[in-house]
């Protein structure tokens, strides 16, 4: 891969998923940045639990992890029944499939693993592992392309605001929105970078800040509510985010707070860019209102507080929201920069991606 600004996309100082000594290892994102601790997983059920409990998170990273989880599932199934392993496999894959509901990459990756396993005649574990590694490598390649495609859209002197964590931790490597930010910064286009802390799980302050620091890209942390004032003061720039699922019409489900950021960007004349691989586009979902939104335990809202909620006060913790397509200036995939209206362009991008993967 060549280009004028590829240094930061040539090497990745952060990795969160590895296949090592016949097992899956995940960097535990629940304890970052305080501790760098790797968990070893030997079964599909443990992998599903790790996805559900956010040991690994971020749509493409969940997809890559699920692919390796499927390898563990095949291994278990073959051990249980070397002849009828396919029947044993189905329920194990289903456990992975329902681990989290919003990120489409989970289902995309398991569909691909199932397609590969339908045709395999010998050595199903080896075939599954080869497919998982390909999914992983392809995600890294696509993310680097996203960075190279997206960076030229950013005008010189732009202020960047980003939300959640979209870097190497959230993907197979290099990141989505983070890939654009890395490339645009290296190309001298960025005046300053602001990182939303991303309540309540703090993906921004715990993970994005750590990753940018690892890449030697300077940034400033803000509370989510500061983004509007930052945009008003900066006057020009881009809000750049990732996606958990993109509906066929270009509506985007992403971390809660993304919709608010898009409204604020439009009001302040900032561009709003969504960066995601084509594996995040869900053509089976016509529009954002049909995307399932994960609700997590309300305890996430009060974690770390020294007091209890008073009587009569409950919690409401949807962890994603949907940004309507009309608030999005461009969606950047590995296939290029897509402008509104998105439907045709996204469909064509997915077709090209499928054709080039064959
Ligand atoms: O709940 P999370 O941490 O899995 O949510 C992650 C996000 O919303 C990311 O922004 C999204 O997956 C895009 S990451 C490349």
Structure, explained:
The structure is a single chain. The chain has 12 helices and 14 strands. With 358 residues, it is of the alpha/beta class. Helix 3 (59-80) packs parallel to helix 5. The two termini are 20 Å apart. The mean pLDDT is 96.
Count of individual helical segments? 12
The tally of strands reads 14
Hetero groups: 5-S-methyl-1-O-phosphono-5-thio-D-ribulose
- SSE run: HEEEHHHHHEHEHEHEEEHEEHEEEH
Biggest sheet features: 7 strands, mixed
Strand order in the sheet with the most strands: 6-5-4-7-10-13-14
As a whole number of angstroms, the C-alpha radius of gyration is 20 Å
Coarse structural class:
alpha/beta
Q: Which residues form runs of ≥5 with pLDDT under 50? A: none
Helix content: 40-55%
Distance N terminus to C terminus?
Answer: 20 Å
List the helices and strands and how they pair.
Layout: H1 7-10, E1 17-20, E2 23-27, E3 38-41, H2 44-52, H3 59-80, H4 85-97, H5 104-119, H6 124-150, E4 158-162, H7 177-186, E5 190-196, H8 203-214, E6 220-222, H9 227-234, E7 237-241, E8 245-247, E9 252-255, H10 258-268, E10 271-275, E11 281-282, H11 299-302, E12 320-323, E13 330-333, E14 336-338, H12 342-357
Parallel strand pairs: 4-5, 4-7, 5-6, 7-10, 8-11, 10-13
Antiparallel strand pairs: 1-2, 2-3, 8-9, 9-12, 13-14
Helix pairs in contact: 2-3, 2-4, 3-4, 3-5, 3-6, 5-6, 6-7, 9-10
The chain binds 5-S-methyl-1-O-phosphono-5-thio-D-ribulose (MRU).
5-S-methyl-1-O-phosphono-5-thio-D-ribulose binds at residues 57-60, 103, 164, 166, 170-171, 176, 203, 242-244, 254-255, 319.
């Amino acid at each position: 891969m060549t280009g004028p600004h590829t240094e930061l996309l040539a090497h990745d100082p952060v990795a969160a998923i590895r296949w090592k000594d016949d097992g899956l290892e995940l960097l535990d994102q629940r304890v970052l940045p305080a501790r760098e601790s790797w968990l070893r997983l030997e079964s599909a059920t443990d992998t599903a639990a790790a996805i559900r409990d956010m040991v690994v998170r971020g749509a493409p990273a969940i997809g890559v992890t699920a692919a390796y989880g499927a390898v563990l599932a095949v291994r278990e199934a073959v051990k249980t029944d070397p002849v009828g392993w396919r029947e044993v496999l189905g329920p194990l894959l289903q456990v992975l499939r329902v681990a989290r509901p919003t990120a489409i990459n989970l289902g995309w990756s398991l569909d691909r693993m199932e397609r590969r396993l339908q045709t395999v005649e010998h050595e199903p574990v080896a075939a599954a592992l080869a497919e998982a590694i390909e999914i992983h490598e392809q995600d890294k390649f696509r993310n680097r392309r996203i960075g190279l495609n997206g960076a030229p859209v950013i005008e010189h002197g732009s202020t960047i605001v980003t939300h959640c964590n979209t870097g190497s931790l959230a993907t197979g490597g290099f990141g989505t929105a983070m890939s654009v930010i890395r490339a645009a910064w290296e190309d001298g286009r960025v005046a300053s970078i602001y990182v939303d802390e991303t309540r309540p799980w703090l993906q921004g302050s715990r993970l994005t800040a750590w990753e940018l620091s690892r890449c030697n890209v300077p940034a400033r942390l803000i509370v989510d509510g500061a983004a509007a004032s930052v945009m008003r003061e900066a006057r020009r720039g881009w809000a750049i985010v990732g996606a958990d699922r993109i509906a066929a019409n270009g509506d985007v489900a992403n971390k809660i707070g993304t919709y608010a950021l898009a409204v604020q960007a439009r009001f302040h004349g900032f561009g709003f860019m969504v960066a995601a691989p084509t594996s995040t586009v869900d053509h089976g979902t016509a529009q954002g209102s049909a995307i399932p939104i994960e609700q997590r335990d309300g305890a996430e809202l009060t974690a770390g507080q020294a007091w209890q909620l008073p009587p009569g006060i409950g919690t409401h913790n949807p962890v994603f929201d949907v940004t309507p397509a009309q608030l999005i200036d461009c969606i950047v995939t590995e296939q290029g920069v897509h402008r509104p209206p998105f439907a045709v362009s996204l469909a064509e991008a997915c077709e090209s991606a499928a054709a080039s993967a064959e």
